Amino acid sequence: MNDNKELVKIANSILEALTNLQKNRWLEILNSLANFSGQLKDTASQSKKLGISLTHNWFFAAKRCRTSISRSLDDMQYSIQKAKQFINVNVPELPRLSVLIDELNGLKMEFGNIDFNREENTLSVVTEPITLEDVYLGPFRIQLNINKLSELYKDRAYYIIALDPNPAVTDEEVTHPHVSSERLCEGDGTVSIRTSIEQGRICDFFTIVKNILNTYSPDSPYVPLSEWDGSPCYDCGYICNSDNHYYCSFCDHDYCEECSSYCPKCDETVCLGCGGQCPHCEEFTCPNCMSHCAECGQLCCTSCLEDDLCPNCIEEKENENEEQQDNITETETIGKPNQLDPGNTEVKLAS
To answer: Rounded to whole angstroms, what are the CA distances from 166 to 23, 27, 137, 172, 188?
Structure first.
């Protein structure tokens, strides 16, 4: 943009918007005072009704008047505070056209190039690619909507647009720790940004916003940089980076350390939902290393199975075998003649 006439057109458009902004500021004062006057009249009317009620000993009506007066006083207090916010702050003088042209030239020197969209009446600059704490975020377009300058006290007049977006993995609308849905969290820069716009310091406005984009505040990000490239645990939702999440091949999901474990028999990583504890050795085991007992059907680890039987069934079978052996031994003992039985003893008498 090298045409000085184009700069004049942009400066005129900004000056017109700032003129409307200043007019709206005065109108806000008038609206606040009008609200206050109306509330004052309502209070006076309720006060008159209160007097009439007390004259006739209409105490129930007096109570209703008191409630209405109390509400009106609260509303008046709010209106007064709102009016004072505008009245107590000096209204900045409108910048001269030549000053705005100088600001635009300074903006070109600061950013190398500026873009003016005549149809949308927007003024934009593009930052250098931004990297914060080794997280690449790419370049951003800072786009000032000149038509919205007159509504500065009600709405944001600019947008932050990612040109090579690398959004947070948990929210695609967050393209920068302090930018969500193309809106910048201004933090401590709110007053500076608004003042620079009110005074027509356009170059300062874009520079302040650029500096905020190049700064990371860990106290108030939409998504912390430490979680930018992470992924949520499928179970608890905790954000894990690539080094601290574990993949369960049985359900095809990623889990945090607290929601996953490993099978000591095959060293397979498994989530707590897919794996389970063997009821006998009490070791956490993956599904591949678990099997059902052929006798009772109980699920336990393969290390605790012997001939497809769990320890309980093996013990029961051994007990049964011992009982059977005891029964066999007892039967054999009962069926064998006793040598000491008198009925079977032959006594030879001397002849």
So the answer is: 41, 43, 5, 8, 25
Which three-class secondary structure state does DSSP give residue 126?
strand
CA-to-CA distance for 202 and 190, rounded, in angstroms? Answer: 15
Give the C-alpha distances (Å, rounded to integers) separating 300 from 266, 282, 313: 15, 9, 12
| DSSP per-residue letters across 239-251 | EE-TTS-EEETTT
Point out the least confidently predicted range of 56-70, 220-234, 299-313, 318-332. 318-332
Q: 135-171 burial by CB neighbour count: b if 16+ within 10 A, else e?
A: bebbebbbbbbbebbbebeeeebbbbebeeebbbbee
- pLDDT band per the 50, 70, 90 thresholds, residue 279: confident
Mapped onto helix, strand or coil, the DSSP state of residue 7 is helix
Beta bridge partners of 285: 276
Contact 21, 149 (CB under 8 A): yes
To the nearest 10°, the Cα dihedral for 287, 288, 292, 298? -30
Report the residue count for the chain: 351
| pLDDT of res. 178 | 96
